[in-house]
UniProtKB/TrEMBL annotation:
Pfam families listed in its UniProt record: A24_N_bact, Peptidase_A24
Protein name: Prepilin leader peptidase/N-methyltransferase
Bilayer-crossing regions: 6-25, 80-103, 109-127, 139-172, 192-220, 232-253
Organism: Leclercia tamurae
Subcellular localization(s) per the UniProt record: Cell inner membrane; Cell membrane
Membrane topology of this protein: Multi-pass membrane protein
Record EC number: 2.1.1.-, 3.4.23.43
Length: 256
C-alpha cells in the first residue's frame, strides 16, 4: 500500500480535477446547444448562474467552499447544486482510495485518466441523455495510445476491442430497429463501448456488456420504472461503471 502522504495528495488532486469535471458536466451540454454563445469550458470564469456573481478564490476551493457557503451563493443565496459537491467528493475519494490500494504507478495513472473520462460522460448522459463525441472520441484515442506506449494490453487487443465494441451495439441497435421500428440505443453508446474496448481489450467486452445490462435492469427497477417518457433510461452510466470495474479487475488486482 502507498504512503499515507501520497494518498492524501492524491485525494487533493482528485478534488481539484473533480472541480474541473463538474464544470464540464455543467457547461458542456449548454455550450453544445449554443445557449452561452461564444462561451467555452474555461470562459467565462466560474460564476453563479442565477445572479452572474463571479466567484472569488475562496468561493472556488474544491469541497471546502461548498461547505463554507452551505450550498448557496453568497450574494443571491440561490442554491448551488449538490451534484457539484458530489463530483468533487467522489473524485477525491476515488483518487485517494486507488492510490492506497494500487502499487503499480502506470496502472494508477491510467485508472485516474479513465475516471476523468467516464465520470463526466456518465453524469451528462444521466441528465441530458447525451454522450458527446468530444468526450467519447478522445477517450477512445487515449486508450489506444495508452496501450501503444505502456503495453498494459497488446495493442492489437485494444484495436480489435474498439472495433468490436462499436459493432456489437450497432448490431443490437439495427436488430432492435428492424424488429420494433424504434431506436433502442443512441450512437453515443456505440462510441463509448468502442472506447472501453480500446481500454480493456476485446476479451473484456462480454463482461462489460453483461455488467452494464445487469446494472441497467437494476437501475430501471429502482429509479426509472415510474418515469414518464416511455421508460427511456440512459445506458451510458451503466457502461461507464462496468468499464471502470472491469479495468480495475483486469489490472489492479495484480498489484495487491
Amino acid at each position: 500500500m502507498m504512503d499515507p502522504a501520497f494518498c492524501t495528495a492524491s485525494g487533493v488532486l482528485g478534488a481539484i480535477l473533480g472541480s474541473f469535471l463538474g464544470v464540464v458536466v455543467e457547461r458542456l451540454p449548454r455550450w453544445m446547444r449554443e445557449e452561452e454563445g461564444a462561451g467555452n469550458l474555461l470562459y467565462p470564469p466560474s460564476h453563479c448562474p442565477a445572479c452572474q456573481h463571479r466567484l472569488r478564490w475562496w468561493e472556488n476551493i474544491p469541497l471546502v467552499s461548498w461547505l463554507m457557503l452551505r450550498g448557496r451563493c453568497c450574494r443571491c443565496r440561490s442554491a448551488i447544486p449538490l451534484r457539484v459537491l458530489m463530483v468533487e467528493l467522489l473524485s477525491a475519494l476515488f483518487f485517494a482510495l486507488s492510490a492506497w490500494l494500487i502499487l503499480d504507478l502506470p496502472v494508477l495513472l491510467a485508472l485516474w485518466l479513465l475516471w476523468c473520462g467516464l465520470l463526466p460522460l456518465a453524469m451528462i448522459d444521466l441528465r441530458e441523455r447525451l454522450l458527446p463525441d468530444c468526450l467519447t472520441q478522445p477517450l477512445l484515442w487515449a486508450g489506444l495510445l495508452l496501450n501503444l506506449h505502456t503495453h498494459l494490453l497488446p495493442l492489437a487487443d485494444a484495436l480489435y476491442g474498439a472495433v468490436a465494441g462499436y459493432l456489437a451495439l450497432w448490431l443490437v441497435y439495427q436488430g432492435h430497429r428492424l424488429v420494433t421500428g424504434r431506436e433502442g440505443l443512441g450512437y453515443g453508446d456505440f462510441k463509448l463501448l468502442a472506447a472501453l474496448g480500446a481500454w480493456c481489450g476485446w476479451q473484456a467486452l462480454p463482461s462489460i456488456l453483461l455488467l452494464a445490462a445487469l446494472g441497467g435492469i437494476l437501475g430501471w427497477a429502482i429509479c426509472f420504472r415510474h418515469q414518464e417518457n416511455d421508460n427511456v433510461i440512459p445506458f451510458g452510466p451503466f457502461l461507464a461503471f462496468a468499464g471502470l470495474i472491469i479495468f480495475i479487475l483486469q489490472h489492479a488486482i495484480f498489484t495487491f
